[in-house]
Amino acid sequence: MEDIQKRELIRSIKLIQSLGCSFRILSPDGESFGDLQIVEPKTRRRSPSKYPHGSLTKQVKDHLDLNAEIGVVQKIPPGDFDLEMLRSVACSILTAAWGRDSYVTMARGDYFEVMRTAEKTAGETV
Description:
two-stranded antiparallel ribbon, 3 helices, 5 strands
């Protein structure tokens, strides 16, 4: 920072302090002025996915008929996927398509079953 820039910065800081304001200024050369704490924003880091993006959804959609009638049982094989992770994805898809409390699922060892139990009501929001 050039001398004239630093002089004007210090003059500005004195004005801000005289107004009773709290502040923190970081100069381009790394100097810090003021008494406010700088808090780093929290970043939410997701753990790396166990499977390629979209592969679980594809496995479910390849074996699921969203136009199935009430009472129809559908079997979803896990393929190379974790059965409970696959069932979780299926429940998300089914809730969006059919609504809450409109289906049941059951794990059966090497596959899981889905059965539609009700129609989605007209005013239901998911």
